[in-house]
Specification:
alpha/beta, four-stranded antiparallel sheet, elongated
């Protein structure tokens, strides 16, 4: 049984189609990234999963429970850290978490609340009013609220936006430990290095459609490599498809992209026979940001 099963999901508003037939399956225990530019439909998809919005068509299920026909079970199994920082100004941190636990019918929540406060470095702020907290502290409380009922599926919508580096590291350490314990994690983030480091699989959304869905390692295969810059009157025909830039300020200067050292060796041998000199050569490691820009550009 998948942790999240989305089929032909669509959501339309009067002037925009936020989701356009999305099919997505996230397996139990995965650390999964959902990426896309602003307006791609990520938050709309999460809102439908959380029961905050109703799909125009299609279905979505959490651990086998439809989010509409079996919404109580679906919401009990899901914890969402929202992008917006929303809080009740009249309660302390502990009171806020107790209230959230009460919504889910959690009995004797204090031991787990104390554990959450410790993991998120909030123990000293347990009795502080929510209004007195910094933005980063409030975001930590949002994370604790999403986890207070120990859901098997956790959705993190930009959880480290505006968070300092130290907290980011401690937060990811805690989230990784939850994943190792069997929790399914779905992450949206604009910090693509986080997704690259943490997530085994990645889906990329653009204009309400999934334009890429694969293992992170596979997405990285198509980027990076060796960049060669050379000057010549005529580039060998076999390398025309490798051109990534043609310097119009200096006629006959080309930049090529080579996937591996074998291609570089073949090029060097060819250039020697043609007496063509290399102006610049550098190795660029693949990263998810390069893959993201390449895929988004291909679906302009």
């Amino acid at each position: 049984m998948p942790a999240v099963d989305i089929r032909a999901l669509a959501k339309s508003y009067p002037k925009v189609k936020a989701l356009d037939g999305v099919d997505l399956r996230v397996e139990e225990g995965e650390f999964f990234a959902l990426l896309g530019p602003n307006g791609a439909g990520k938050t709309t998809l999460i809102s439908i999963l959380a029961g905050l919005s109703r799909a125009s068509s299609g279905t979505a299920a959490v651990m086998g429970h439809d989010v509409v026909s079996d919404f109580r079970a679906a919401r009990q199994l899901l914890g969402v850290v929202p992008q917006e920082v929303v809080f009740d100004p009249f309660f302390s941190v502990r009171e806020t978490l107790r209230l959230s636990a009460g919504y889910y019918g959690v009995r004797n929540p204090d031991p787990w609340i104390d554990e959450l406060l410790g993991h998120l470095d909030l123990s000293k702020k347990a009795d502080a009013n929510m209004r007195s907290l910094s933005g980063g502290m409030k975001r930590r409380v949002l994370v604790a609220q999403a986890l207070v009922h120990k859901p098997p599926v956790i959705v993190l919508d930009e959880p480290t936006a505006g968070v300092d580096v130290e907290l980011r590291q401690s937060l990811w350490g805690f989230i990784k430990s939850l994943n190792q314990q069997g929790h399914t994690i779905i992450l949206t983030t604009h910090y693509l290095e986080e997704a690259e480091t943490l997530c085994e699989r990645v889906a990329m959304l653009k204009q309400g459609k999934i334009v890429a869905l694969d293992r992170t390692a596979n997405l990285l295969k198509g980027v990076g490599g060796i960049k060669v810059k050379l000057s010549c009157h005529k580039l060998p025909d076999a390398y025309q498809s490798k051109i990534i830039a043609n310097d119009t300020q200096k006629q006959g200067t080309y930049s090529l992209h080579l996937a591996n050292y074998a291609e570089l060796e073949a090029l060097l041998n060819r250039l020697r026979t043609m007496d063509i000199a290399i102006e610049e050569l550098r190795i660029e490691e693949a990263d998810l940001e390069q893959a993201f820009l390449k895929i988004m550009g291909a679906h302009a």
